[in-house]
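User: My collaborator sent over this chain with a note saying "see what the structure looks like." That's all I know about it. Can you take a look?
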Amino acid sequence: MKVLIATDGSDFSRVAIEKFCEILAISDDTQIKILSIYEQMAPIAAEPFAVSAQYYQEMMGLAHKQCEGFAEASAEQIRKACPDAECRIETAVRMGAPARVVVDEAREWGADLIVVGSHGRGFWGRLTLGSVSDAIVHHAPCSVMIARREMED
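Assistant: Without extra context I'll predict from the sequence alone. Here is the result:
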């Protein structure tokens, strides 16, 4: 089984990994790819002082490095939660629109399952803010598991 886990380093992503480890049996032939995505920074044209291209390049480098950290932390979380599993875990960092990148990666890699967390914004939040998990569900080439944090009272 090939499982693609998308993470943004948030508590919602960690909950998704916890639920994945809790619900699904990880066998030795399970392949897990942890994907973290950052978006391209657009130069701000209306700035009173021009920001150098080097600044944007450094910011993109920092975003990439941060995503590498998110992916590695997620891999470590799986190793700790499932210490007896001998599955293969790989990490990847991509740049682009998160929902599109997840769907494209799942298609290209041949994923059997995509695991993502949900921020739980509800209908109005999705309407105004969009929803990565919602877009993934509607465009994924495979099954999708969306985990939500338990609501606090």
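A starting point for your reply to your collaborator: The beta strands are 2-7, 31-38, 88-95, 113-118, 143-148.
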